[in-house]
Amino acid sequence: MAIELGRTGIWRMFTAVDPAFAAGVEELGYGALWLGGSPGGDLALVDELLGATERLVVVTGIVNIWQDEPASIARAYDRIVAKYPDRFLLGVGAGHREATKEYKKPYTALVEYLDGLDAAGVPVEGRLLAALGPKVVELSGARTAGAHPYLTTPDHTRATRALLGDGKLLAPEHKVVLETDPAKAREIARRGLQYYLGLSNYTSNLRKYGFTDEDLSGEGSDRFVDALALHGDVETIARGLNEHFEAGADHVTVQVLNEDPWPAYRALAEALR
To answer: Where does the Luciferase-like domain start and stop, copy by copy (predicted)?
Structure first.
């Protein structure tokens, strides 16, 4: 298996993606399209996106383990890779305690889910894990192609690479706002970040990297916003994203928070080549 993601991809909620969107992302030269929001079930959307493109890799970022059994996801995986070899990567994760009533012992549940994928024949190289904490990062390195950290900083990327070692995929997500007015940029960013301040797995992880209760309370401090949603002109944003590569990332998936994301997609496609 030789799945080539390229250096940069686009992260987008699966509800806001269609074949025309995927074709536009591919035309700009991005290597991968990451589907957020747990597009589970039979993953029919993945077929549609791959059918509308020629080279683009589609990644689920993520399939929620509480919503779909590994056997059913494995059947969808087999169907997709048979038709589109080397263009689909199955990202799975445990989601959030606050958003999932079934949530319990997430590490144990992840291990059991991976056991189920093993039994159904999904190869290690064809899957990856959403990973923040050290135990799940190590699990991602041991039993999948690698790790997909979300809502993190280059410091987290550096620590994650040290845990993963060489040879495993490290593909962090980072949010951006293409806007040179700091007040306007932070207003846009806060709308995109507010939800995550209510999720304990993210806030607990951010505290490990120097963010304080003050940073993570209310609407979030300017320090929090500036770190988690890069903003400014395209050169400033590109420099911030390149810090992930300098810290050991193989691929960075970019989530644009502007209402119209295409100006940022076009500008960053040039700046990050």
So the answer is: 21-117
